[in-house]
Amino acid sequence: MLQNYFPVLVFVIVSIVMGCLPIILGWFVAPHRPDAEKLSPYECGFEAFDDARMKFDVRYYLIAIIFILFDLEIAFLFPWAIIFKEIVSNPALRLFGFIEMLVFIGILLIGYVYARAKGALDWE
């Protein structure tokens, strides 16, 4: 009965070693030369010069949201790329697959042009 769990135990031990080994090696091998700049607090692209509850510029979050939006939409291209050979080899699907992707990329392009026209991508 315990023989069935031996591969799981080996897997857990190897994964713990592989996870901890780089950290331990980095601790011993890496140079430790902290200076004032390395020890200074820095977060979210802004230097900490005031209270931690200071107001951030809304454009910072807008750029982040637009990046996530376009990044996720690009993820929808992967299923199409995986079945691309099947689309090209089938004459009935060839034109449909091409037009489908043109519509999708057109919607992305319209969103990009709209964001650009509204000034959402301008950083002052």
Task: Give a written overview of the molecule.
With 124 residues, this protein is mainly α. The protein has a domain at 55-124. 69% of the residues lie in helices and 3% in strands. The chain has six helices and two strands; from the N terminus they run ααββαααα. The protein has helices spanning 6-29, 36-39, 58-75, 77-82, 84-89, 91-117; strands at 42-43, 46-47. A two-stranded antiparallel sheet has the order 1-2. A hairpin with a 2-residue loop joins strand 1 (42-43) and strand 2. The longest helix is centred in the last third of the chain and has 27 residues, at 91-117. The radius of gyration is 25 Å and the shape is flat. The relative contact order is 0.06. The mean pLDDT is 83.
What's the structural blueprint in terms of helices and strands?
Elements (H helix, E strand, L loop, with lengths): L5 H24 L6 H4 L2 E2 L2 E2 L10 H18 L1 H6 L1 H6 L1 H27 L7
Antiparallel strand pairs: 1-2
Tell me, rounded to a whole number, the average pLDDT: 83
Strand content: under 5%
Question: Class by helix and strand content?
Answer: mainly alpha
Low-confidence runs? none
The residue fraction in helices comes out at 55-70%
What is the number of strand segments? Answer: 2
Shape: flat
Strand adjacency order, main sheet: 1-2
In short:
With 124 residues, this protein is mainly α. It has helices spanning 6-29, 36-39, 58-75, 77-82, 84-89, 91-117; strands spanning 42-43, 46-47.
